[in-house]
Amino acid sequence: MNTKITPLGENVLIKPVEVATKTESGIFIPDSVSAEKPQQGTVEAVGDSEKIGVKKGQVVIYKKFGGEEIKVGDDEFVVVKLDEIIAVIG
Known about the structure:
The chain has strands at about 10-15, 40-45, 60, 70, 75-80, 85-90. By secondary structure, the chain is mainly beta. It has a single domain, classed as GroES chaperonin (10 Kd Chaperonin, Protein Cpn10, Chain O). The chain has a 6-stranded antiparallel beta sheet with strand order 4-5-1-2-3-6, with no helix packed on it. A hairpin with a 2-residue loop joins strand 4 and strand 5 (about 75-80). It is elongated, with a radius of gyration of 14 Å.
């Protein structure tokens, strides 16, 4: 990531997991089938609130319709409020 993005308050910047476009056996998955967006990703940055309990690098699951999608260059991110994160994986 070339540009540094720092969320404010109780916001968390998440890089969603990549959606598979091909199966392990080489079959391409059409967009109409894989239209559902992922609900998990890696924490890239956290806001300055002391309430935030996640750290950079953790993989989290967030609410289905949570957050704001943003694009910086070729990178896509989701900025979610702390209460939209429902689990930490691992």
